[in-house]
Amino acid sequence: MGSTVPPLSPEKFAKAFADIHPAFEPQAATVEATRCLFCFDAPCTVACPTHIDVPRFIKKISTRNLRGSAMTILESNILGLSCSRVCPVDVLCEGACVMHGYNKQPIEIGRLQRHAMDYFYSHNPSLPAAKKAAAGHVACIGAGPASLACAAELRRRGFAVTIIDKNPLAGGLNTYGIAEYKFRPSDSKKEVDLVRSMGVEFRLGTEANIESLQHEFNAIFIGVGLGSTHRLNIPGETLPEVVDALKFIASYKTSSIRVGRRVIIIGAGNTAIDAATAAHRLGAEEVHIIYRREQDEMPAFDYEYQLALLDNVEFHWHTQPVRIHGTSAVESIECVRVDKNLAPIPNSNFTIPCEMVIPSIGQTRLVDFLSRCKGVELRNGCVVVNPETGQTANPKYFAGGDCVNGGREVVDAVAAGKRAAAGIAKSLEANHG
Ligand SMILES: Cc1cc2nc3c(=O)[nH]c(=O)nc-3n(C[C@H](O)[C@H](O)[C@H](O)COP(=O)(O)OP(=O)(O)OC[C@H]3O[C@@H](n4cnc5c(N)ncnc54)[C@H](O)[C@@H]3O)c2cc1C
Ligand code: SF4
Fold first, then answer.
1. Given a cut of 70, is residue 270 above it in pLDDT?
2. Of 99, 120, 269, 364, which is the most exposed, with the fewest CB atoms less than 10 Å away?
3. What torsion do the CA atoms of 301, 389, 50, 69 make, to the nearest 10 degrees?
4. Ligand lying closest to the C-alpha of residue 249
5. Of all atoms in ligand 1, which is nearest to the CA of residue 87?
């Protein structure tokens, strides 16, 4: 690689990726909990896709019953720890808090949830065993949030469950994708271990062979998420320093990586912002985001955009990459300005010197794999399901998470996994009388 920045020492890495929202001190958590109005028909609970009973768990924090509070959270959301750290709370529970109507700060639901979950995981985390064994063995393909939630709910109902994932570590994007200053692989492992402790079997490092799984299991949950980043289709993109945003993020989170001194990110979604802030924290001196539309159309949440600005990321609106220059290594990127209709503006080409380019223009769909799931209907590369049960057009297959919704949030994947587990349970119980 051309001019790169050496990997950070473990101490510098920990400092650069320190928690973005530090945990509450115990006293502060109790004080914040007592601010809650414990609303009847609480809008925060309605706004949460997993419908955590927010006033109930906050009430338990106010009486310092932290294990009880965590159990309330886990009843609705087995990934209560990750969701407390990664959920976009301002557009979900905290966005719905009645305090806004009184011109007051919303209750810090996310941090309170983290307070209860941190207590749970540091005090011998365990859950009550399933009450009865039920007839049926279910395969969950993928070990991301959707499958973990589906598997946990099925175990609660007594079914045997095996999770299969091609990656060596379970957790899906909770392990490999979420920005390190929000959630670390070691935290993701805690949640995976909790699901394992419920009796779920894991086959990791194993690409799912759908034909053989079909014979081995009574029902199959598809929770495979999405594929790699779309290609740019411009000259120069095969140079070694052109790195898919997802691979870049997974590499820095699970091993050490050298970033270019000057890094270009293409795209302006939440993943692009995560790649940009990571490049900055890993030591890049300049980080540019190139986006072909205007600021208002940027898919990233405003909160994420603000994070990028704080990390000195420079945004180039109405700009499209044309070619990446370099013979054996990336040297610069050539761009063109585009108008509102994305038509190139004549004579507006310019180049930005750089040593690394990170495309982040959305994820592909896993159409090859999904097409092998016989009878499963696809629309735009996503699995079509009954929204109530997660069941596909083939009654043996259920699905949920990013491979169904096209890419949303962790909490949506958890809600879908849980819903599908109820659908699978109903279908297996009907088959076994
Ligand atoms: C960079 C990035 C940052 C994000 N940040 C946030 C955030 O801050 N907050 C938030 O709420 N959401 C965030 N999201 C979205 C969130 O991570 C996803 O919505 C969620 O992980 C989807 O869960 P899932 O289980 O459907 O898929 P995934 O988490 O993608 O898990 C799918 C799993 O299936 C496995 N798999 C795929 N194909 C096969 C196969 N053939 N055989 C075996 N295994 C297979 C994969 O290895 C993977 O482990 C982010 C997403 C990205 C890409
Ligand atoms: S809406 Fe706000 S005040 Fe009401 S229960 Fe939820 S967190 Fe508490």
1. yes
2. 364
3. -160
4. 1
5. 11
Tokens 């909790």 locate to 194
Ligand 1 within 6 A of CB of 269: no
- What is the structure's pLDDT at 133? 87
What is the band of 155 on the pLDDT scale with cuts at 50, 70, 90?
very high
Lining ligand 2 with CB less than 6 A are 36-39, 42-44, 54-55, 97-99, 107, 109
| Test site for ligand 2: of 32, 34, 37, most ligand atoms within 8 A of the Cβ | 37
Which residue shows structure tokens 């070990």?
143
For a pocket test of ligand 1, which of 150, 243, 410 has the largest count of ligand atoms closer than 8 A to its C-beta? 410
* Radius of gyration in angstroms for the set of CA atoms belonging to the chain, rounded to a whole number: 23
Compute the mean pLDDT over every residue in the chain, rounded to the nearest whole number.
Answer: 96
Instruction: Say how far apart CA 55 and CA 60 lie, in whole Å.
Output: 9
- Does the structure show a pLDDT above 60 at 2? no
From the CA of 52, the nearest ligand is 2
The residue whose two tokens read 């539309």 is 293
Question: In angstroms, what is the span from residue 107 Cα to ligand 1's centroid?
Answer: 29
User: Looking at ligand 1, which residue's alpha carbon is closest to its atom 8?
Assistant: 86
* Helices H / strands E in the chain, number of each: 18, 16
CA–CA gap between residue 305 and residue 375 (Å, rounded): 41
pLDDT tens profile 239-266 = 999 999 999 999 999 988 889 999 999 9
Cβ proximity of 409 and 271 under 8 Å? no
Quote the ligand 2 centre to 55 CA distance (angstroms). Answer: 6
What pLDDT does residue 174 have? Answer: 98
Round to whole Å and give the CA distance between 264 and 276.
Answer: 8
Banded model confidence at residue 129, pLDDT cuts 50, 70, 90: confident
